[in-house]
């Protein structure tokens, strides 16, 4: 019994990691993927940069608001330069840096990574959007309709999770579209695809329900490099 409970807990932890950064590919030179326990200060020290430089290069209005799986630029963008000798050790082992000569860029409008134009989605279901993305309390959008309303794949991809092991999501599907993008479909009453299955854009993958929810709806998320972004930016207007 204890072993079963332990396995379930490990499974939930794995699902959390999956939803945060499923299928993420190794990052390229000059970038760093945030890991559990990281702080911006720790990342800056590890890459011999200042916190100010990294916050500016990544449009971080709040340096404390980084997420596991998020990819950060840790080297100067083209045409910019970091402070020479960005980190100098003092007597207390801390770090200090002068301001960078890099030009300041405008912050993202939502405080989260803006959706690049590299993916185009179709609406995953019919219905009314009852909750929109805000990047903090809402990591996606909620769409309400009648029980059993078809849920379709928003883009072609592969099913990387199909189950109900993640609290708060009910019957959940996660699709991986490429090395950077995935979508999640929560609260379904029925799932019609299995893990490892390839799906086409617009293919029926589930039916809307109210599992682990107080009303019938689809909770739909879009993740880019592990970070939640506003799916409405990649959806066609209604």
Automatic annotation (TrEMBL):
Give the residue ranges for region: Disordered.
82-109
Signal peptide start and end residues: 1-27
Which stretches make up the LysM domain? 30-74
Provide the alphabetized UniProt keywords: Signal
Q: Which PROSITE patterns match?
A: LYSM, PROKAR_LIPOPROTEIN
Q: List the Pfam families.
A: LysM (PF01476), Peptidase_M23 (PF01551)
The answer to whether UniProt assigns keyword Signal to this entry is yes
The question of whether Signal is a record keyword is answered with: yes
Q: Which PANTHER family match?
A: MUREIN HYDROLASE ACTIVATOR NLPD, PEPTIDASE-RELATED
Family stated for the protein in its record: Belongs to the E.coli NlpD/Haemophilus LppB family.
Name recorded for this polypeptide? Peptidoglycan DD-metalloendopeptidase family protein
